[in-house]
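Batch job 17 of 40 flagged for manual review because the log was empty.
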Amino acid sequence: MKTMGRSDRSGREGEALACRHLRAQGFRIVAHNWRCPFGELDLVARDGDTLVFVEVKCRSSPGYGGPEGALTLGKRRRLIAAAGAYLMREEPDLPVRFDVIAICGDSLAHYRDAFSAEEPCSLDS
C-alpha cells in the first residue's frame, strides 16, 4: 500500500481548495483528476458555455519559486494533448480555455486563460 506523501497530500488539499474557489466563482466542476494516456487533467469545469481545463499548482512556500514556474512548456503540451482527448470523448463542441490556479502557502491566484494551444503562456512573461 502506497502511503500518501507530503506533496500528494498538499496537491489534494490544493485541488480541494481550487474546487471551492471555482464553485464560489460560479463554475461547475465536471471532472476531477481525469486521466488518459497523455496525462492527467486536475480539474475540468464549466464556466457558462465554456469548458475550462484547470491546472492546479501548489507550493508550501516560495522558496523554490512560485507554483506558476512549474508549468513548463512540456507540461503545457501534455495538458493540451489530454484536453484534446477529453474533448474527443466527452464534450467535443464546446469552446475551451486553460486556467491555472497557483497556491502558495495561504494565497491563491487564479489565472484565467493562462495559455492556449496556439499562444505562448501568459505566465512566461
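Reviewer: the log was empty due to a logging misconfiguration, but the result itself is present. Residues 100 and 111 are 5 Å apart (CA to CA). Unflagging and moving on to job 18.
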